[in-house]
Amino acid sequence: MYVVIVGCSPVGYHLTKVLLTAGHEVTVLEKDPIRCQLLWDELGSVVIQGDGTDERDLKSAGTARADVFVAAADLDETNLVACQIAKHVFQVPHTMSTIKDTKNEPLFEILGIDVVVNATHLMVTALEEGVPGRPLLRLMNPRVPELELVSVSLPADSAIIGKRLDELVLPPHSFISLVIKKDRASLPSNEMILESDDEVVAVTSPGEEHNLYEILTGA
Prior knowledge:
single chain; 219 residues; Rossmann fold; 6-stranded parallel β-sheet
Protein backbone atom coordinates (compact mmCIF):
# COMPACT_ATOMS: atom_id res chain seq x y z
CA MET A 1 0.00 0.00 0.00
CA TYR A 2 1.28 3.47 -0.88
CA VAL A 3 0.44 6.27 1.56
CA VAL A 4 1.08 10.00 1.17
CA ILE A 5 1.12 11.95 4.43
CA VAL A 6 0.97 15.75 4.47
CA GLY A 7 2.49 17.25 7.60
CA CYS A 8 5.18 15.99 9.92
CA SER A 9 3.14 16.81 13.01
CA PRO A 10 3.44 14.37 15.94
CA VAL A 11 0.57 12.40 14.38
CA GLY A 12 2.22 12.39 10.96
CA TYR A 13 5.58 11.40 12.42
CA HIS A 14 4.32 8.45 14.44
CA LEU A 15 1.98 7.28 11.67
CA THR A 16 4.92 7.28 9.25
CA LYS A 17 7.00 5.11 11.57
CA VAL A 18 4.14 2.66 12.12
CA LEU A 19 3.41 2.32 8.40
CA LEU A 20 7.07 1.83 7.51
CA THR A 21 7.44 -0.82 10.21
CA ALA A 22 4.43 -2.61 8.74
CA GLY A 23 6.12 -2.68 5.33
CA HIS A 24 4.12 -0.01 3.53
CA GLU A 25 5.52 2.57 1.15
CA VAL A 26 5.22 6.09 2.56
CA THR A 27 6.03 9.60 1.41
CA VAL A 28 5.75 12.57 3.78
CA LEU A 29 5.27 16.06 2.39
CA GLU A 30 6.32 18.73 4.91
CA LYS A 31 6.59 22.47 4.32
CA ASP A 32 8.86 23.33 7.25
CA PRO A 33 12.55 22.73 6.37
CA ILE A 34 13.57 22.06 9.98
CA ARG A 35 10.97 19.32 10.42
CA CYS A 36 11.98 17.89 7.04
CA GLN A 37 15.61 17.68 8.09
CA LEU A 38 14.76 16.02 11.40
CA LEU A 39 12.68 13.34 9.69
CA TRP A 40 15.29 12.90 6.95
CA ASP A 41 18.01 12.34 9.55
CA GLU A 42 15.94 9.58 11.14
CA LEU A 43 14.07 7.94 8.27
CA GLY A 44 15.83 9.04 5.09
CA SER A 45 14.25 9.84 1.76
CA VAL A 46 10.62 9.23 2.74
CA VAL A 47 10.30 12.97 3.37
CA ILE A 48 9.95 15.65 0.69
CA GLN A 49 9.92 19.36 1.43
CA GLY A 50 6.83 20.90 -0.10
CA ASP A 51 3.40 22.43 0.35
CA GLY A 52 0.55 19.99 0.81
CA THR A 53 -1.85 22.46 -0.79
CA ASP A 54 0.29 22.91 -3.92
CA GLU A 55 -0.74 20.64 -6.79
CA ARG A 56 2.80 20.49 -8.19
CA ASP A 57 4.29 19.41 -4.87
CA LEU A 58 1.58 16.79 -4.42
CA LYS A 59 2.35 15.45 -7.89
CA SER A 60 6.05 15.23 -6.99
CA ALA A 61 5.10 13.17 -3.93
CA GLY A 62 3.36 10.62 -6.16
CA THR A 63 -0.13 11.43 -4.96
CA ALA A 64 -1.63 10.20 -8.24
CA ARG A 65 -0.73 6.59 -7.36
CA ALA A 66 -1.50 6.79 -3.64
CA ASP A 67 -3.89 4.27 -2.13
CA VAL A 68 -4.42 6.43 0.95
CA PHE A 69 -3.88 10.15 1.51
CA VAL A 70 -3.49 11.43 5.08
CA ALA A 71 -3.57 15.13 5.97
CA ALA A 72 -1.93 15.59 9.37
CA ALA A 73 -0.75 19.20 9.24
CA ASP A 74 -1.13 21.59 12.16
CA LEU A 75 -3.91 23.65 10.55
CA ASP A 76 -7.38 22.30 9.78
CA GLU A 77 -7.59 24.59 6.75
CA THR A 78 -4.43 23.08 5.27
CA ASN A 79 -5.72 19.56 5.81
CA LEU A 80 -9.06 20.28 4.19
CA VAL A 81 -7.55 21.84 1.06
CA ALA A 82 -4.94 19.06 0.77
CA CYS A 83 -7.61 16.35 0.95
CA GLN A 84 -9.80 18.09 -1.61
CA ILE A 85 -6.93 18.27 -4.09
CA ALA A 86 -5.99 14.64 -3.45
CA LYS A 87 -9.57 13.46 -3.93
CA HIS A 88 -10.68 15.59 -6.88
CA VAL A 89 -7.45 16.24 -8.79
CA PHE A 90 -5.50 13.03 -8.17
CA GLN A 91 -8.50 10.72 -7.60
CA VAL A 92 -7.06 9.17 -4.43
CA PRO A 93 -9.59 6.52 -3.31
CA HIS A 94 -9.23 7.05 0.46
CA THR A 95 -8.60 10.39 2.18
CA MET A 96 -8.08 10.89 5.91
CA SER A 97 -7.57 14.02 7.97
CA THR A 98 -6.94 15.11 11.52
CA ILE A 99 -8.80 18.14 12.87
CA LYS A 100 -8.28 20.23 15.98
CA ASP A 101 -11.40 22.38 16.01
CA THR A 102 -14.50 20.25 16.63
CA LYS A 103 -16.65 22.79 14.78
CA ASN A 104 -14.90 21.83 11.55
CA GLU A 105 -15.85 18.15 11.66
CA PRO A 106 -19.24 18.51 9.87
CA LEU A 107 -17.62 20.52 7.07
CA PHE A 108 -14.96 17.86 6.50
CA GLU A 109 -17.63 15.17 6.34
CA ILE A 110 -19.89 17.17 4.00
CA LEU A 111 -16.97 17.70 1.62
CA GLY A 112 -16.36 13.97 1.43
CA ILE A 113 -13.26 13.33 3.53
CA ASP A 114 -13.49 9.58 4.10
CA VAL A 115 -12.13 9.48 7.66
CA VAL A 116 -12.00 12.47 10.02
CA VAL A 117 -10.00 12.05 13.22
CA ASN A 118 -11.02 14.56 15.88
CA ALA A 119 -8.15 15.26 18.26
CA THR A 120 -10.55 16.51 20.93
CA HIS A 121 -12.56 13.27 20.80
CA LEU A 122 -9.36 11.27 21.11
CA MET A 123 -8.45 13.21 24.23
CA VAL A 124 -11.87 12.57 25.76
CA THR A 125 -11.54 8.88 24.97
CA ALA A 126 -8.14 8.76 26.64
CA LEU A 127 -9.60 10.40 29.74
CA GLU A 128 -12.53 7.98 29.78
CA GLU A 129 -10.13 5.06 29.51
CA GLY A 130 -8.36 6.18 32.67
CA VAL A 131 -11.54 6.44 34.74
CA PRO A 132 -12.25 3.27 36.75
CA GLY A 133 -15.60 1.64 36.15
CA ARG A 134 -16.06 2.99 32.61
CA PRO A 135 -15.12 0.04 30.37
CA LEU A 136 -17.17 1.28 27.39
CA LEU A 137 -15.28 3.64 25.08
CA ARG A 138 -16.65 5.39 22.00
CA LEU A 139 -13.94 4.98 19.40
CA MET A 140 -15.50 6.97 16.57
CA ASN A 141 -18.73 7.84 14.81
CA PRO A 142 -18.93 6.18 11.37
CA ARG A 143 -20.33 8.25 8.51
CA VAL A 144 -23.69 6.57 9.04
CA PRO A 145 -25.27 8.78 11.76
CA GLU A 146 -27.22 5.90 13.36
CA LEU A 147 -24.09 3.85 14.09
CA GLU A 148 -21.32 4.00 16.67
CA LEU A 149 -18.03 2.13 17.02
CA VAL A 150 -17.39 1.23 20.66
CA SER A 151 -14.93 -0.78 22.69
CA VAL A 152 -15.90 -2.78 25.79
CA SER A 153 -13.42 -4.44 28.17
CA LEU A 154 -14.86 -7.63 29.61
CA PRO A 155 -14.64 -7.72 33.43
CA ALA A 156 -13.76 -10.97 35.21
CA ASP A 157 -17.26 -11.29 36.69
CA SER A 158 -19.12 -10.93 33.38
CA ALA A 159 -21.67 -13.68 32.75
CA ILE A 160 -20.33 -14.22 29.22
CA ILE A 161 -16.79 -15.18 30.26
CA GLY A 162 -16.10 -18.68 28.94
CA LYS A 163 -18.90 -18.54 26.38
CA ARG A 164 -18.57 -18.84 22.62
CA LEU A 165 -19.43 -15.86 20.45
CA ASP A 166 -22.28 -17.72 18.79
CA GLU A 167 -23.92 -18.12 22.21
CA LEU A 168 -24.35 -14.36 22.63
CA VAL A 169 -27.69 -12.76 21.87
CA LEU A 170 -26.85 -9.21 20.81
CA PRO A 171 -29.24 -6.35 20.07
CA PRO A 172 -30.61 -6.55 16.50
CA HIS A 173 -28.50 -3.72 15.06
CA SER A 174 -25.28 -4.52 16.91
CA PHE A 175 -22.43 -6.82 15.93
CA ILE A 176 -18.89 -7.59 17.06
CA SER A 177 -16.20 -6.56 14.56
CA LEU A 178 -12.97 -7.37 16.45
CA VAL A 179 -11.82 -9.12 19.63
CA ILE A 180 -8.50 -8.07 21.15
CA LYS A 181 -6.94 -10.62 23.47
CA LYS A 182 -3.74 -10.36 25.50
CA ASP A 183 -1.48 -11.47 22.67
CA ARG A 184 -3.39 -10.76 19.49
CA ALA A 185 -6.30 -9.11 17.72
CA SER A 186 -8.68 -11.50 15.96
CA LEU A 187 -11.69 -11.28 13.71
CA PRO A 188 -14.73 -12.77 15.41
CA SER A 189 -15.69 -16.39 14.77
CA ASN A 190 -18.53 -18.49 16.15
CA GLU A 191 -16.09 -20.76 18.01
CA MET A 192 -14.14 -17.97 19.73
CA ILE A 193 -14.19 -18.20 23.54
CA LEU A 194 -14.52 -14.92 25.44
CA GLU A 195 -12.08 -14.42 28.29
CA SER A 196 -11.58 -11.96 31.11
CA ASP A 197 -9.97 -8.67 29.99
CA ASP A 198 -10.77 -9.29 26.32
CA GLU A 199 -11.50 -6.05 24.53
CA VAL A 200 -14.52 -6.31 22.26
CA VAL A 201 -14.88 -3.77 19.45
CA ALA A 202 -18.47 -3.56 18.26
CA VAL A 203 -20.72 -1.58 15.94
CA THR A 204 -23.97 -0.51 17.56
CA SER A 205 -26.61 2.20 17.51
CA PRO A 206 -27.10 4.89 20.16
CA GLY A 207 -30.38 3.28 21.19
CA GLU A 208 -28.77 -0.14 21.71
CA GLU A 209 -25.53 0.99 23.33
CA HIS A 210 -26.69 0.53 26.93
CA ASN A 211 -28.19 -2.89 26.20
CA LEU A 212 -24.99 -4.04 24.47
CA TYR A 213 -22.94 -2.82 27.45
CA GLU A 214 -25.11 -4.82 29.86
CA ILE A 215 -24.84 -7.99 27.76
CA LEU A 216 -21.06 -7.81 27.54
CA THR A 217 -20.31 -6.79 31.11
CA GLY A 218 -23.21 -8.25 33.05
CA ALA A 219 -23.73 -4.82 34.64
